[in-house]
Every structure is written in C-alpha cells, then in structure tokens.
Amino acid sequence: MRHFKLDDDSVVVVIGSGAGGGTMARELTQRGIKVVCLEAGPLLSHIDDFVNDEVTMFNKLSWLDKRSASGNWNMAGSAMPSWTVKAVGGTSIHWAGTCLRMREHELKARSSYGEVAGAALADWPITLRELAPFYSRAESKMGVTGTHGIPLLPGNNNFKVFEAGALKLGYRSVSTGTMAINSQPRDGRAPCLQLGFCFSGCKMGAKWSTLYAELPQASATGRFELRPRCQAVAIEHDDGERVSAVVYADAEGRLQRQKARAVVLAANAIETARLLLHSSSARFPQGLANRSGLVGRHYMRHVFGFTYAWFDKPVHFHRGTTCAGNIEEENGHDPSRGFVAGYHLQTIAQHPVGMARAIAAARGHGAPVAARMARYDHIAGQMIVGEDMPVADNRITLHASEKDRFGVPIPNVHYDDHPNNVAMRRHAHARQAALYQAVGATDMIQVGPPPATHNMGTARMSDNRERGVVNRWGRAHDLRNLFVADGSSFVTSSAANPTLTIVALAIRQAEHIAHAMARHEL
Amino acid sequence: MDMKLKGQIALVTGASKGIGFAIAEQLLKEGATVLITGRGEGALNDATSRLAALGPVHALAGDLSTAAGADAVLAGAKAHGEIDILVNNVGFFEVRDFFATDDAAWTHMFELNVMSGVRLARGLMLPMLARGSGRVVFIASEQSLKPHPQMAHYAMTKVANVSVARALAELTRGTAVTVNSVLVAPTWTEGVEQFLQPVAAQQGVSVETMRAEYFKGDGASSLIQRFAEPEEIAAVVAFLASPLASAVNGAAVRADGGIVRSLF
C-alpha cells in the first residue's frame, strides 16, 4: 500500500471507510486521485477474524465509545443509542444488505406530504431522474439481486412464513428483495451459503462490504493509503474558504495532522456532526461549516419496530439471510391510514440475547422469557422500516461536560418520536400481527426501536445555504473543499434502507469531485 | 369522569337489545367507535339507527353460535382497524327442567354462550397481546356462582365464561391487556320481560307481580331487592373496558346486587 506524508497536501482525506467513505476511496483513486482514508477502527479479515457468534462479533465490531441520549424515545438514558461499526468497512460490515431505491414521492417529501406540524419536511434538491443512473451503477457495483439480471436469493424459513402470511393479506409484492448479497459468484466473491449471522459480518464475503469489495480496489490503484485505528478529532481550515488538514489520534493515541487538498467526511451521521461541531474556530464559532446552524439537526433513524411470533412448528429464523424478505405495498403515501409517508415490512432474525431482551421488555423478566426462549427455534420475525419525520430539535450536540480520551466531547443524541411515527408504527405493527395471525401464530410480541443503525440528516442537503449544510453535491456551503458522503446529507429519510442511496450519492459525488479537480476548481 | 375511551374501537356482541345494547350505548357516549353484532338483521339495524346519534356505530351481522358466523364477524371487525375492546356479551338463557333438557339444548347453549367468546378472543386477542394493550370483558352471571337447577345448562356456560376469562388473563402477563368477567345480577331486560309474560299468564298473575315476587323466592338473598337495570351493568363494563381499570385483571367482578352471599 502507498504511504503518504503528513504534510502532503495533494491527498484527499476521507474520514470513515464504510459505505460512503469506502466507495468514495475507490471511486476517487480509480479516477487518478490520491486518497488517505482515516478509519477509527481496526483492520479485520473477514476470513480470519469473523466468527459466527453474535456476542463476540458485537464486541469486536461495534462503535462502543460512550454516547448519551435524551428525548422521549426508548433509547433516552442509553450510552449506546445507535449501533454502528468501528472497524475498516464501517457499518457496511454489519448491514443487512437491503438495497431499496428512494421513490419519486419520497424525494419530494414536502410537495408530496404537505405541511406536517412539528416536521421540517423539504424536497431534495435532486430528482429521481438525476439519481437513477447512479442507483443503477451502485446496484451493479454491489451485485444487487433482482437488478442487472442477478437472480433473487432463495427464501429461508423465516421468509417462507412471511411470504405465506403476506399472500394471505394480499401483498403481491412479497419477495426476498433486492439485496447486495451474491446469489451467484460475482466480482470475485462467493455466493451466499445461507449461514445466517449477516449482522456479525459476512465471513464468506457474499454480502457487499467496502472491507473486501471497495477498499482492495482502491489499494490496487497505488494511490490509496488506509490508516486503521486513526480517529479524526478535528478538521482545520485556512484563512479562505478551504479546509486544510485533519487532526487525528493514531493507533498509539498520538495526535497527528494530515494536510489535505480536500476532505470527505463519511463518519456516520452522529460522528460526522460531532466532528463538525467540535471543529469550531473563531471564524466558525458554531462549528465548522455550520453558518446555517443546521449541523446536527434533523437527525433521523427510520421508524423501526419489530414483531416476533411463535408457531407450532420450528422456523429456525436465524438460519439463512437475516433480512431477505420485503413487502412494498405499504410504502406509498396514503393519508387515509392516519399518517403521511409509508413503510416497508421486512424479515429479520434476532440473536438469542437480543430476543431475550425483547421478550423481557414486552412480557417481563423470568418465566415469560424462559418459556419463550425454550422455543427460540419456533420464532419468526419481522421489522418495520418507515419514513422518519425530520424534526429540527432531533439533533446531535456536544455533551456539556463528558469528553472522550482524546478530549473531544461525547455526542448527545436527542430524539423525540414524532406523532406521525407513532401512528405509522401502530399501523405497521397491526399489519405485522395480522400477517402472522393469518398463518397460525400462537404467541406474539411487538417491540419498539432498538439502537438505530440507520443514521441520517445531520448535515442536510439544500441548494439554499440557509436551509442546508451541504449543496446538491454534498459539498459544504461554507467550505469549497469539504464534502459529506454519508447519510448525514439526507434531506428526508424515505422508507428505503439508506446504504444504496449513500453509495449512489458517493459515486455521483466522486465524479463531481474528479471533474472539479480536473478543472482545477479544487 | 372521563373514561379515556375516545377513539378506541370496541366490539360488543349481542348488542341489538338488553345489556349488550346498553354497553354499546355507554361506550359510544364515552367516545368509542362501537361495532355491534346480532343474529337478526332487522333488530340489529334498528339498534344501529337508535345508537347512531351517539357516535360511530357499525353493525356486523352474524350467528356467533357457529364458527362461520364468528369468522364473518371477525372479518368485518378487522376491516374497521385494530379492536381495542372486546365485550363478549352474547348469550341466551332459558328456564328448563333438567330432565327435559336434551343434548341439543346443552350443546347449543355451549356453542353460543361459550364458544362465541372463545372464537372472538382467539381472533382478536393475539394482536392485543402483541402490541401490549387491549381489553376483553366476558359477561357472566350470578348464576356462575349459584346455579339454579332449572337453568343448569345456562349456569354451566356462565361459569365457563369466568373460567375462560381467567385462563386468558394468564396470557396477558407483563402486558397492559386485561381480561375480566362480570357476574351480572338478575337484570330487567326486554328478553326477561318477554320470557316472563307467558309464565305470568300461565300462573294468572301480572308480570309486575312476578317481578316483585322474584325477590321473595329465588332472589331473596339480593341486597338491592330489585332487578338491575342494563345501564347499571353497562357502567361496570365500560369501566373495565377503560384504561382506568388497568389494575383489574383476571377478576370476576360482581355487579350482582349482592345476591351471591359470600365474601369472595
């Protein structure tokens, strides 16, 4: 791998190596641009270091740095309100592989849904027409089933229960869905053998992750340096409109300063906002690139919810793809349901520790948990992924007193569940219950959202510099060479799992950056 | 007192008249949406039009003594959304000599008075348990505790209601769902009046006399010394159906006018 000097200001510094940062690294280096990627976590090998043990992998992969949480949600008071990954590959190691495109009406949320009290809805500055070619390229790169002639995945038992119930309710769209999990050999990676444990990292590399799909391609260009265990702590700027360097703590905890031609921030929406807020200066007293005051605001995490049902016969829902099962029909805008926007119903399996926690939350500790866990193999599971309302006061802020070991204040995540979310979750839970009841469920529990893996909105995109942190290219309004390439730039959440859109936007953004550099504008 | 029932959806079975009608009326007054069931469409539609002024009420015709009838009611109910409250009220009674009560009479009594509630609870309770909230109320009788030999089959079904309610309450552990039964006093309804008319005529006395005489004979232990009014029962049911009754679960609540002479 190439090594760049700390004072080499010809490199683009990418912060984060997940879906946004990892994609950006490959796309930029393949266009002849030099990239240094700072990744807070270690470099693991999926072959040697990944094991099919959820607890071991949770401890090995998770971003466990302390956070705080406030608001009316169930994560208030938690030190881990969000479940993301701290390792090379970022949360693309943990993700389920679900690849849904945002729909036209979702990209025009304000026009589609009208004024919703307490929500700061806005239309995206880009249209589906502009985005569609990049979605297509992302789907090709990621090997998404059901696109580019790639066959769908087979359904596991959890899916078969889901499918049977869905058909009884008249949901004709039910399928194993568009998944970035190989259903056949592709891109030098093996097909899925239905091992399960998707959330623990795909040991066989069938599920797309930047760890083994994008970053090796970046390395192969000879223009890429990956610096694992290097956690960014601040971004510095010059006297003009440019960022100039990134200060980071290296593996030994020493602070280093890497000069940069441009900086791409892709640290996941909580850390991206935290870094900007912490990088305040005399010229940016509210935080870097935060003249709009919007950095950290409009934090979204999707309307999540779960239904677990017990059946007379074994399901073994933990076997096979954790999340391959999707229903589209509820993802329209139909206000007659009592809420705006829509949601997806998707299959999900829950590992035993998580399952026991869910049962205890719904039914109490002790005997209720023991009796149901004894029939763990008889459970089927479903999740809701619905559009979250952007609320200005749902936001990331710097904690007033607590700091991490590098002296950076820990982030506080404040989130109040919008009434539209509550109504949507209630509707979706009822549909999930009806689905399982239609195929003979004998017991059911429904639980609210877990720590969010889908983090969005904290550096909102807008053509108007007063209404957004970044422009249509994800470039900061206040700084001409600072870009955001993760879910932070999302204007609204849509009901689509965010990764595909993050990757599509990163490809588009890389092309924009490369053109701007070719024209010496950067 | 606001019973906090606004916007909730209740299903009340056997609500064309009598106690069921009064329960529907009470829930509507408290702001609930009420779905009422009945066998005869004429009486059901009549009840619906009498209740319509009070709030959103919908009729679901169906014979709950059959599985097919219960399925039809369940399908109709689900079209209105999630059911928050299920009141298993439907049932009939008759006075019949034990030795003249044949198998068919026993079976029919069981199908309507017991299986109706079982079928509806089987269809509606799982979603309540899943989301962790809901109310199920079974209408039982003082006959659950002091069976009269002239109503052995009826009394049997009424104690079965109490038993089923308690068993279902056991499923609600750890949730905010409750299942209770109400032991109803002898209540003066159109049904009772119609039943007594021929008996009174046979004995050459007025219905009014029989109404009063009851409390000198079988009803002697009653503390209120009168038939209860349907509204008095409905008030208890509405309370049990409301969020206010969140600590009452698995109970057999006595609205029996004190006729059952026991502490518990």
Can you describe what's shown?
The complex is a heterodimer of chains A (522) and B (264). Chain A has 522 residues and is of the alpha/beta class. Chain A is 26% helix and 16% strand. Chain A has 13 helices and 16 strands. In chain A, strands 4-2-1-8-16 form a 5-stranded parallel β-sheet. Chain A has a 5-stranded antiparallel β-sheet with strand order 10-11-12-9-15. In chain A, a hairpin with a 5-residue loop joins strand 13 (395-403) and strand 14 (409-414). Chain A starts with 11 loop residues before the first strand and ends with a helix. The relative contact order of chain A is 0.20. Chain B has helices at 18-29, 41-51, 67-78, 103-131, 152-170, 190-203, 207-213, 230-241; strands spanning 9-12, 33-38, 57-61, 85-88, 133-141, 176-184, 252-255. The radius of gyration of chain B is 18 Å and the shape is globular. Chain B is built from 8 helices and 7 strands, in the order βαβαβαβαβαβαααβ. Chain B is an alpha/beta fold. Chain A binds chain B through residues 307, 309, 362-364, 368, 426, 429-430, 432-434, 437, 441, 443-446, and chain B through 78, 81-82, 123, 126-127, 129-132, 173-175.
Distance between the ends of chain B? 28 Å
> Mean pLDDT of chain B, rounded to whole units?
95
Radius of gyration of chain A: 22 Å
Low-confidence parts of chain A lasting 5 or more residues at pLDDT below 50? none
Order of helix and strand elements from N to C terminus of chain A: EHEHEHHHHHHEEEEEHEEEHHEEEHEEH
Main beta sheet of chain A, described?
5 strands, parallel
Q: What's the mean pLDDT score of chain A?
A: 97
Largest sheet of chain B: 7 strands, parallel
Oligomer: heterodimer
Percent of residues in β-strands of chain A:
15-25%
How many β-strand stretches of chain B? Answer: 7
Number of continuous helical runs of chain A: 13
Parts with pLDDT < 50 across at least 5 consecutive residues of chain B = none
* Molecular shape of chain B: globular
- The amount of helix of chain A comes to 25-40%
Strand neighbour order, sheet with most strands of chain A: 4-2-1-8-16
Q: From the alpha-carbon coordinates, what is the Rg of chain B to the nearest angstrom?
A: 18 Å
Q: Number of DSSP helices of chain B? A: 8
Structural class of chain B comes to alpha/beta
The most extensive interface between chains reads:
A-B, 18 and 13 residues
User: What share of residues are in beta strands of chain B?
Assistant: 15-25%
